[in-house]
Specification:
The chain is an alpha+beta fold and about 260 residues long. Helix content is about 40%, strand content about 20%.
């Protein structure tokens, strides 16, 4: 949940800069939370050292089985004709699921009724039950529901198709050019951690990400290890800056309650 990520990030920011306390966190903690509140106890750009990017988790746009549209083209037409009746679930304020929904609606040029939940699990439960119409969320939790035929899938939110769902086109392929939303993860240390320690931690990260067993486990969960060129602090910092500039205006424009 959002509160848990805030507590965790704050704890690491206030920890000794000795390399023994690190933060493994997703994009919500560093990109979304700061746009939702000016009262955060941590500053993602000033309170941390950056060790490296780790992995990306793609997302998918889903619909309930009883929702009339059967493909993305039908979905677009249905939403435009019934925008006041369509409900879009998300995993709660500050979740990347919420951001994905906002960007989808922004690209479509239509606002629907948003239904926030306390996590992906409850949102998926109500999607399967038909209490809500659509949901955008990460593959780690949604693919089993897709493969069991419990939900409809309209598209992948990243530029490339997924090996687990090779026949599902991307939103980019289906007309939303450049649509690219995913949950990305990085590792951080408290500000002031000495460079020799950061270098050792980065070397350990790169070594860990070459482990065949780890890669197999991540692959089975549809989690993509980033290229080695991104497994460093400079790349993580640059990526964070770009993501804040990319999504900040959209989040602020949506006027999401703090």
């Amino acid at each position: 949940t959002r509160s848990a990520t805030v507590i965790g990030a704050d704890a690491v920011a206030k920890s000794p800069s000795d390399g023994h306390t690190l933060l493994f966190s997703d994009s919500a903690t560093f990109v979304i939370n700061p746009q939702l509140s000016n009262k955060l106890p941590y500053d993602p750009l000033k309170d941390f050292e950056y060790i490296g990017q780790v992995a990306d988790v793609p997302m998918v746009l889903l619909g309930s089985k009883n929702f009339p549209p059967n493909n993305f083209k039908e979905l677009e037409a249905y939403i435009r004709a019934n925008k006041d009746k369509v409900t879009m679930a998300n995993a709660g304020p500050g979740a990347v699921s919420q951001l994905c929904g906002l960007i989808f609606q922004s690209r479509l040029g239509v606002r629907v009724t948003t239904v926030p939940y306390k996590g992906t699990g409850p949102a998926l439960t109500d999607l399967v039950g038909g209490q809500v119409n659509i949901l955008c969320d990460q593959t780690t939790q949604t693919i089993p529901f897709i493969k069991d035929g419990k939900v409809k899938v309209y598209g992948v939110t990243t530029p490339k198709r997924l090996s687990a769902l090779p026949n599902v086109p991307t939103l980019d392929e289906q007309g939303m050019k450049g649509f690219d939303v995913k949950v990305w993860h990085g590792i951080y240390a408290p500000l002031g951690t000495p460079k020799p320690i950061l270098d050792r931690l980065n070397a350990a990260l790169k070594k860990a990400l070459t482990d065949p067993d780890l890669k197999a486990r991540l692959d089975s969960s549809n989690i993509d290890i980033v290229p080695v060129s991104k497994q460093n602090g400079e790349s993580l910092k640059a990526h964070l800056d770009a993501e804040i500039n990319r999504w900040g205006p959209i989040i602020r424009k949506a006027n999401i309650p703090d």
